[in-house]
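User: Predict the structure for this protein chain, please.
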Amino acid sequence: METILDAANKLHKKVKFFFIGSVDEDGFPNIKAVLPVNKREQLAQIYFSTNTSSRRVAQYRANPKCCVYFADLLLFKGVMLKGVMEVLEDAETKERFWDKGDEQYYPKGVTDPDYCILKFTAQSGRYYANFQSEDFEL
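Assistant: Here is the predicted structure, written as structure tokens:
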């Protein structure tokens, strides 16, 4: 029988859009739709590319607590993860996640100072399907 963690991981690898949450300087939540990098490895660590100069990066540097949400809207299944976000700017990480076409967002290429990777590390989650929710730990 499939566990909740298995179902959440399958959904993680299937969906295209994710929503990331951060906390602003006034303590209010902020939500943004994002695309994960193409190399999805595990549910406990999800990576996103973004602009170093973005508001979200500044918020994660001030307060790394965040959440990530993704869902299959047709099947009405979703996962909310709570954890922390790190801003990674080292060359090795940036090269690891660089993908063809990224130059449209970062015109100076993989060394563009406005290109960074967000590394989300999940601590716990909540899976919703079939009108029921269940918490899980990672």
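The beta strands are 18-23, 29-34, 45-51, 65-72, 77-88, 115-129, 132-137.
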